[in-house]
Amino acid sequence: MNQIVSFLDHLVSAAEDPTEFGIKKIILVGEVATKQWIERMAQLLRIQPADIMDTYGSIEIGTIAYYSHDHDRYIFVDGLVAEGMEAEALNIEIDPLRENERILVLTSFVRKMFPAIRFVTYDVVRDLKPVLVQGEWRQSFKKLVKRVGTELKHGEKISLYDIEEIVYRHLPKAGIRVKVSENALSVYIQSPYLEDAIKRQIQHEIEHKIPEIGEMIEHKILDEIRVIAVPIGEQLNRGTVKNKKIYD
Q: Which tens digits make up the pLDDT trace of 37-49?
């Protein structure tokens, strides 16, 4: 779980005026943040989205990529060779990925000890392709979608980033928690702008515009999605509901 993201969410939610903290720059380390979260946080703190640097990494590799606001993509750091593999090539039995999605495989030439040779991250990235960065072609991807693998439960295969995109499309300001329990997926939202009509629209789009969720509902793996309004002032992380990560 990205502790910086969680901490900032609590900080700005509790503050009458988040700008009083005087935060000018933010560097996120750990799980990536969505573009919508970055834009919302920048607006609340009255800084530019470019003042928020988001990074993606792992214990095995270290820092893997950083988000470029100029390119609206994640750019791989020097010393890494990135490949996109299909599940069939890795002998992983999962639901089919979208046409522009691949499982990220990395080779690292940076470390002198324990080099990574075609290390399978089990992270699914979207739109993996090279882009021109300051006159040099660099490998990049548009979005980190989810993790896959036979050891994962169905809740962990759901993309929180797609859910956040839908919510922030309708709400300029919102705190979000997602919980999977048994066959129910609940989306907890705290926002002064959340009305019943918006709740119904968010629920409909989550069910019909995210293929993985639609397929789970169709095959009775998940029941109907529940969108739950959390009153302003009440703790959003009450109980087992967590931020930025889906738990079974």
A: 788 888 888 999 9
Beta partners for residue 180, in sequence order:
185
Domain covering 154-229: architecture:
2-Layer Sandwich (3.30)
Sheet containing strand 136-141, strands side by side: 26-28, 52-58, 62-68, 73-76, 136-141, 129-133
The boundaries of every CATH 3.30.70.2210 domain in the chain are: 154-229
CA distances from 47 to 23, 25, 103, 137, 171 (A): 8, 8, 34, 30, 20
Q: Which residues of 202-214 are buried (b: 16+ CB within 10 A; e: fewer)?
A: bbebbbeebebbe
Q: Distance between CA 221 and CA 164 in Å, rounded? A: 21
Write down the pTM of the prediction: 0.62
